Amino acid sequence: MTLSAIPLNIEEEYIFSNEETLTATEKWQILQDWQHFILSGFKKLFFTRALYRQLLRCELTAHRNTEHFWGYYFASEIFRTRSILRMWGGDHLNPESNNTLWLGGPTADLKAAMCREAERLYVPLTQILQDLEMKYEELVEAWHHFATAANITDAVLPPHYQVSDNAHNLLAFAAQIALKHERPLVGLQMMFPLTMNNEQLALNNFEFTIIK
Fold first, then answer.
1. What is the pTM (predicted TM-score) of this model?
2. For the residues of the chain, what is the DSSP string, one character each?
3. Where in the chain are the domains?
């Protein structure tokens, strides 16, 4: 079995205007970056500088740089990832300002398009995060009972599930299932981690199809 890249198309027809902040062409590029980022399961490789700067325009400003932003929302406690996903695909409440005022102002057309793209995958991605959180809570409870019975006091698990590379792989896997409306081969999710040799190919053509 081999994997062959096919072009990733944005299904909706969006009309962007030129603004002082961004040109229409720049908005299209950011929207493509955003879709690649979601389909990758929010992997750091796909978190571009242009996308980061657009998120700052959405009143997500309590972050020093791209590293800090990505680490805070996509590589720490799972509730933070769920909050940012809900902002774009759910009720649109900004987790930092707790309102929806961010949808207006500069680049409002791009913000609306980004929401539409996130909404397409909101349900399956949220389900993955909820399942991971629930299973982790079961693990913590089981460990607590075991540690108590074994009189172990110096090994404490984190109270919340920490989003890991495996979580990113599962999210990417779920996105592929949702978009294709079919189940990929068992174990295919293990093939989503990208090697350095595939980075440029992946950035341009991320969605994969199977050739037998």
1. 0.74
2. -EEEE------S-------SS--HHHHHHHHHHHHHHHHTTS-GGG--HHHHHHHHTTT----SSHHHHHHHHHSSBHHHHHHHHHHHHSS---TTTSSSGGGSSTTHHHHHHHHHHHHHHHHHHHHHHHHHHHHHHHHHHHHHHHHHHHT--S----SSPBP-HHHHHHHHHHHHHHHHTSPPPTTGGGG-SPPGGGHHHHHH---EEEE-
3. 2-211
